[in-house]
Specification:
The chain is mostly helical and about 80 residues long. The chain has helices at about 1-25, 25-60, 70-75, 80-84. The protein contains four helices and no strands. The chain is elongated and about 65 Å long. The termini are far apart.
């Protein structure tokens, strides 16, 4: 009996607010679209950051721990920089 009363109350409230929402139908639609877009961005952003981070870490590991000094020593122009 209580659930029927709650459903009746809910349907009564919806019927009561529908005329109000008809006046602002496009604003309501725009608001729902923006809320959906915000939700999608909140879900996709961490995945994008994870992808970018993992790809940079993999690229850095592929460099085999090279440093600036090791690159400079192995450079063919090193002799010109050091000895003129």
């Amino acid at each position: 009996m209580q659930t029927e009363e709650k459903q009746m109350k809910m349907s009564y409230l919806i019927k009561r607010f529908v005329p109000y929402f008809k006046k602002y139908k496009w604003i309501l639609i725009l608001d729902l679209i923006c809320a959906s877009l915000t939700t999608v961005c909140e879900l996709v952003f961490p995945m994008l950051v994870r992808y970018i981070t993992n790809s940079r870490i993999n690229r850095r590991n592929n460099l085999k721990n090279r440093t600036f000094l090791s690159d400079f020593k192995n450079n063919r122009l090193c002799g010109k920089f050091l000895y003129g």
